[in-house]
Every structure is written in C-alpha cells, then in structure tokens.
C-alpha cells in the first residue's frame, strides 16, 4: 500500500486519506507503551509506533463492530467525537 500524503481537509470523504489523530493519555501509560513498542516492532513486524497504533486502533474497531453491530461497520458520524470527558448513553 502506498501511503498517501496527509490531507489538509479533514472533511474529505476519501477513506484512504491519512489524517493526524491526537488524544490525551497518562504519562505513565505513554512511557510504558514507548518501552513496549520496540518489542512489537521486532517480534510482530510493525515498522514504527504509528503503524502499531493503527493496528491496535483497527483491531479494536473491528471488535466493537463484531460485538455491538453484528460485524457490520457502524454508520459514519458527521460530527467528530467529543474531546475529553466521557461518552453519555443516549436514552
């Protein structure tokens, strides 16, 4: 797969566009992850931390689809996920 340049327009519809994703994480969790990444690269074949995170991200998305949506992709959201805080169940 050829890596596409990052798209400047996050509203683009092309699913193959490369986008930057940011999130907050505890320092200790980040440090532990950074210590584990070299083993993942060596034994599991991930070429860098970003590739490893993308693998985890997609594996978890697939699990959520399988467990909560009969294995089908969830409907795409128009709005981005809320930043910070927690999700609230809709009634």
Helix-strand blueprint:
Elements: H1 27-44, H2 49-68
Describe the 3D structure:
With 91 residues, this protein is mostly helical. The chain has a domain at 47-72. It is built from 2 helices and no strands. The mean pLDDT is 82.
Tally of helical runs: 2
Helix content: 40-55%
- Whole-angstrom Rg: 16 Å
Biggest pleated-sheet summary? none
- The count of strands amounts to 0
Determine the N-to-C terminus distance. 42 Å
N-to-C series of helices and strands: HH
Mean pLDDT: 82
Shape: globular
Structural class: mainly alpha
Put the structure in a nutshell.
This protein is mainly α and 91 residues long. It contains two helices and no strands.
Name a few traits of the molecule:
single chain, 91 residues, mainly alpha, 0% strand
């Amino acid at each position: 797969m050829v890596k596409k340049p990052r798209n400047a327009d996050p509203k683009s519809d092309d699913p193959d566009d490369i986008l930057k994703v940011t999130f907050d994480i505890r320092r200790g969790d980040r440090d532990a992850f950074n210590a584990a990444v070299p083993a993942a690269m060596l034994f599991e074949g991930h070429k860098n931390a970003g590739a490893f995170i993308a693998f985890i991200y997609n594996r978890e998305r697939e699990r959520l689809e399988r467990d909560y949506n009969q294995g089908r992709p969830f409907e795409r959201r128009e709005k981005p996920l809320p930043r910070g805080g927690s999700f609230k169940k809709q009634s």
